[in-house]
Amino acid sequence: MSQEQAEAFLERMKNDDVFNAAVIRMDDLETKMAYINRKGYTFTSDELEKASHLITV
Asked: What is the pTM of this model?
């Protein structure tokens, strides 16, 4: 789990429309997290929350 991976994930969500649409299109959290993990991102919800504050500031 990694703060850096959470930040990289959020950056990709902002900059990659296809990736963003794929994640948003998934209905449940378990499916989303499995897809995100397969794409190489592993982070906790706390790391994601911290990353979201860093990127939006």
From this structure: 0.87
